[in-house]
Amino acid sequence: MLVFLQIFDEKGNLVQICLRDEVKPRRMRLSPRDGCWYVSDELSECVKVYSPNWRLIRRIGESTFQCPAGLAIDSKVLILQTCGKMRARLNR
Questions:
Q1: 42 in any annotated domain
Q2: Which pLDDT score, from 0 to 100, does residue 84 have?
């Protein structure tokens, strides 16, 4: 399965293709604190953190979160909900 993120401008022109290495991203959120993208990856069972220019910075909980689905983020914490009903509140 080929999964990637396409970014378009306001006129519908393709600007960038991102996340080519992702296998099954579920949700993504932009952090108001650092401008990084947090992407829940179902296959890797973790949350991947990307810089504003889409460079992978780190992984949170690799092979830990069963099917990470819900993702909420504010200036202090990341809250993750998984299909296994496990919830994690991670101070960043």
A1: yes
A2: 63
Look at residues 85, 91, 83, 41 and name the one whose alpha carbon lies nearest to residue 63. Answer: 41
CATH number for the domain including 46? Answer: 2.40.10
User: Is the residue at 12 inside a domain?
Assistant: no
Cα–Cα distance measured from residue 68 to residue 55, given in angstroms and rounded to the nearest whole number:
21
10-41 per-residue burial string, b: 16 or more CB within 10 A, e: under 16: eeeeeeeebbeebeebbbbbebeeeebbbbbb
What's the distance, Cα to Cα, between the start and end of the chain in Å? 32
Other C-beta atoms closer than 10 Å to the C-beta of 84 total: 12
Q: What is the pLDDT of residue 51?
A: 92
Q: What tokens appear for 68 in the block?
A: 């990470």
- Structural domain including 36 reads 23-91
Percent of the chain scored above 90 by pLDDT?
Answer: 8
